[in-house]
Design goal:
about 350 residues, alpha/beta, Rossmann fold, 2 domains, six-stranded parallel β-sheet, six-stranded mixed β-sheet, 13 helices, elongated, signal, SBP_2_dom, carbohydrate binding, Peripla_BP_I
């Protein structure tokens, strides 16, 4: 059993934790200020989607994601499928299930089937070199989600440092307004560059705010709820004074919250901040109006749309930067309705509001 656990953890360390993106790059290398979503939206609205390629044929995109067992990727695929349908694009999807070899095979099969673009959430970036070169030889653009891969046309994702800064700025203001002396537990994933950047931005914003705070302890939750719970239990035993939890994704934050509750500590004194706001888990925690007060939302369904829109633009002759930004912002109970509307028991994301974030 221990050998199995070690193997699973090793595989997890090869990839970016759900929703993590890579280091920032220049936002634009041209003068065109329109976004891929705007360009694709114009195509959908003017009725040109049935024959949507530059040569008049119906386009076919292939998307291989790393692990569809997680809500983050389920919602990315949902958004991508919705956008592809609007544009009249055939979208073929596959789940690599955290198997790098399987992902390469799936991508090779998609190339053989004649896709016009490849969309990838990488399991292991190094394993993709050969298939990306093959795509280049065939003139097929490669659009990566969050993780920067050498040779890819572009990567769609957020600025992780800026996302962390959004969380730190919010905490500084909230702590000041509520007379909180933050004793912080950071539930991170230090082996991962993007997650380190989230924590980096968080600390930078706190330092710049001038408030007095203390990082009581930093733990490695591996981006998983159960692991986050276990390591947070040890931290809370050593530091029962902790009154703030900052997690690098929803699992990290909710795992830390669960440990706090199991320790029998006073939850009314806890402020928890999430990152990702990936779907039901984060939304449920926030709407419960408990310790989970805020999250950096990354809008996975919007990211799925942006993947398709970016591929659509490239296939039709457009130019994109090495990085294509998708929006992030702090979500609280106060502004939740600005970004989500409930309809028949489902929460619909306000894509126009997210587009506005990118344009700011």
């Amino acid at each position: 059993m221990k050998k199995v656990l070690v193997l699973v953890l090793a595989v997890l360390l090869m990839v970016t934790v759900f929703g993590c993106s890579a280091a920032p790059a220049e936002e634009s290398n041209g003068t065109d200020t329109s976004t891929p979503s705007e360009a694709a939206g114009e195509a959908a609205s003017d009725g040109t989607s049935e024959e949507n390629g530059a040569d008049g044929k119906t386009l076919k995109f292939g998307y291989v994601t790393s692990d569809m067992s997680h809500e983050w990727y389920q919602n990315i695929v949902k958004g991508a499928q919705q956008r592809a349908e609007e544009l009249g694009i055939e979208l073929v999807t596959a789940d690599a299930a955290m198997d790098a070899g399987k992902e390469v095979t799936q991508l090779e099969n998609m190339l053989t089937s004649g896709v016009d673009a490849l969309l990838i959430t990488p399991v292991d970036a190094k394993s993709l070199v050969t298939v990306i070169n093959a795509a280049k030889e065939q003139g097929v653009p490669v659009i990566c989600e969050s993780n920067v891969v050498e040779g890819a046309t572009t990567t769609v994702g957020i600025d992780s440092v800026e996302g962390g800064r959004q969380a730190g700025k919010w905490l500084a203001e909230y702590a000041t307004e509520n007379n909180i002396d933050p004793k912080i537990l950071v539930v991170g994933m230090p082996q991962n560059e993007d997650c380190r950047e989230r924590v980096q931005g968080f600390k930078e914003a706190l330092d710049e705010s001038g408030i007095q705070y203390e990082i009581a302890q930093e733990v490695d939750g591996q981006g998983e709820k159960e692991t986050s719970l276990e390591v947070s239990q040890d931290a809370l035993t050593a530091h029962p004074e902790i009154n703030v939890i900052f997690g690098i994704n929803d699992n990290a934050t909710t795992g830390g919250m669960a440990a706090y509750k199991e320790a029998g500590l006073d939850e009314s004194k806890l402020t928890a901040i999430g990152f990702g706001f990936e779907g039901v888990a984060g939304r449920t925690a926030l709407l419960a109006d408990g310790p989970y007060k805020a999250a950096v939302a990354m809008f996975p369904d919007f990211m799925g749309q942006r993947l398709v829109d970016t591929a659509y633009e490239v296939v039709n002759g457009g130019e994109v930067s090495e990085r294509t930004w998708s929006g992030s912002t702090i979500i609280t109970l106060d502004n939740f309705s600005d970004y989500y509307t409930e309809e028949n028991g489902e929460y619909i994301t306000n894509f126009e509001a997210i587009e506005a974030l990118i344009e700011e």
